Amino acid sequence: MIMRLAKYLSNSGIASRRQAEVLISSGRVKVNGEIVKILGTSIDSEQDQIFYNNKLVKSDDKVYYLLNKPKGYICSNFDAHNRQNVLALVPKSPRVYPVGRLDKDSQGLLLLTNDGDLTYELTHPKFVVKKEYLVELDKDILAKDLAQLKSGIRLTEGVAKADQVKKISPYKIQITIHQGWNRQIRRMMQALNYRVISLTRVREGNLALGNLALGKYKVLNIKDFK
Question: What are the residues whose beta carbons fall under 8 Å from the beta carbon of 47, sequence distance 6 or more?
Answer without folding.
Answer: none
